Amino acid sequence: MIFMKNYLGNNMSNIEIEQCTQSVLDSIKSDEYAGYDPPFDGLNSKLFDRFPPNLKNSIFGLLFLQFNKRSPINFRCLLGVAKKRNPKGIGIIILGLLQDYYRTNDDAYLKEAQKLADWLLAQRCDISKWEHSCWGISL
Question: Based on the domain organization, do 30 and 89 belong to the same domain?
Fold first, then answer.
C-alpha cells in the first residue's frame, strides 16, 4: 500500500486505494487471470489454422505480427486470438495477493494466491528434462 500511495500520490485515501485494488482484482479474476500478450500473440490467431502451417513463418506472419503489435485498435478478438495466462504475470499477481494478505490478514487473498501457485507449479516444464523449474510462454 505504501507503493500505491507513493505512486498515486497522497491524494488518495486508504478506502480509495482499497477500492482500486479490489476493482483491479475483480477485473483480472473475471478473465480468469488471462490476457493478451501484445507484442507477439497475433501469431496465435485462429486465422492461421485455415492456411498452410508455413504461412506463420513467412513474411506474411511477420507482417501480421507487426500489424497486431502496432495497431492502435485491438483486433485480437476479431482475429481469434485467445486470452491466455502468462506464468510471469501469474507470479506477479501472487506477489500482490500475498502483500494484500499481509496488509489485511484476509485469508481470501492467501487462498487465491495458493490456488494460483498450484496452477503455476502444474505448468512447469518437464522436470525430468530441466534441472530447475522453468516455464514457457504461449507463442
Answer: yes
Indicate whether 27 and 88 sit together in one domain. yes
Structure letter (DSSP) for residue 81: P
As given in the structure block, the three cell numbers for residue 10 are 497522497
Query: ∠ at Cα 40 (49, 53), nearest 5°?
Result: 25
Residue 17 to residue 71: CA distance in whole angstroms: 32
Residue 129 is assigned to a structural domain of this protein = no
Domain co-membership, 45 together with 70? yes
Domain of residue 44, residue span = 36-82
Query: 13-36 pLDDT, tens per residue?
Result: 778 888 888 999 999 999 999 998
Coil, strand or helix at 93: helix
Q: Binning pLDDT at 50, 70 and 90, where does residue 138 land?
A: low
CA-based torsion, 40, 95, 134, 83: positive or negative: negative
